[in-house]
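Issue 218. Parser rejects a valid record. Input:
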Amino acid sequence: MGPSYGDSQVIHDNLKNYAVRALVMNVVDHLGTVAYKLTDLLDQQTLDVSTMDLRVSTVTQVDAKTIWFRKKVLKNGGI
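Output the parser choked on:
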């Protein structure tokens, strides 16, 4: 004797619940991966901007020292 209609319904409901939970877990896992990748990308971009800011600051300091030196040389009539 095979499973009754009630047994089939329970099996169907269990499979449906399992499928829904598996789908939700897959979506949550995917969102977590996307969030991690976006955070990593943002961190890299922030590091790139900080590096560029440091380079600009260094160039600005060198330029200011060069201008100061030129003014000093001109003021004193040469080296």
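Fixed in the parser; the record now loads. Residues 1-79 form one domain.
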